[in-house]
Design goal:
- The chain is mostly helical.
- It is 79% helix and 0% strand.
- The protein has 2 domains: 1-68, no CATH class; 69-203, no CATH class.
- It has helices at residues 3-14, 16-33, 37-56, 71-88, 96-113, 118-148, 153-161, 169-202.
- It starts with a helix and ends with a helix.
Length: 203
């Protein structure tokens, strides 16, 4: 396994416990710590530390085995990180394309490392790329729905981009459709390009 593959495995699986426990401690503390922001932050930090400790102890062997996971498990990881990235960037789905591209790379490398046939590698890679595209489409629809639900969206877009003209709803719809379709095409074809180059290099 290449050092880059090890890095991807450690980062992908190593972040799971810290992120999950941070969110559990954070959101789980809200019902009984409502209004006490310091306590909520301390508990969230406790969850983060607990996750890091788990990575260095019980999960130490696991975080290096990303490429040994079955395809359904990798799909679950893909969905998890898609949600996390979407939330981290506050509903801005552009960076979710990176998740999809990495997903295609990981599944392709998984097949190569397992000495799978090129046909099997292609089959699994196509599956994960299609899944990534569906996830991104869903997130784009969510973003569009949130944007269209804002009564001041036209003024917000004008101010955000410092436009010298007024923005109307037709322009907003055009931005949503063109931007969304462009993002989907970008992720889909770049994922395929990266995966095909990785497979070709291995063969």
């Amino acid at each position: 396994m290449k050092s880059f593959d090890k890095f991807i495995s450690i980062m992908t699986l190593g972040l799971l416990a810290p992120v999950i426990l941070t969110l559990l401690f954070w959101w789980g503390s809200i019902p009984f710590a409502m209004g006490n922001d310091q306590l909520i932050m301390r508990l969230a930090f406790t969850g983060l530390i607990a996750g890091i400790v788990l990575d260095f102890t019980l999960l130490r062997r696991f975080i290096g085995k990303l490429y040994e996971l079955p395809l359904p498990a990798l799909a679950a990881v893909e969905i998890f990180y898609s949600i996390m990235v979407y939330g981290f960037f506050m509903g801005f789905p552009v960076f979710n394309a990176i998740v999809g591209i990495l997903g295609g790379y990981i599944v392709t490398r998984r097949g190569i490392l397992r000495n799978a046939s090129p046909a099997e590698v292609l089959k699994n890679t196509k599956y994960i790329i299609r899944l990534s595209t569906v996830i991104l489409l869903f997130l784009c629809v969510c973003t569009a729905a949130l944007a269209l639900g804002e009564s001041t969206i036209c003024a917000e877009v004008k101010g955000m981009f410092k436009l010298p003209f007024d923005v109307n709803m037709k322009m907003i719809w055009a931005m949503i459709l063109i931007g969304g379709i462009s993002l989907l095409i970008f992720q889909y074809f770049l994922s395929k390009l990266v995966s095909m180059r990785v497979l070709k290099k291995a063969c």
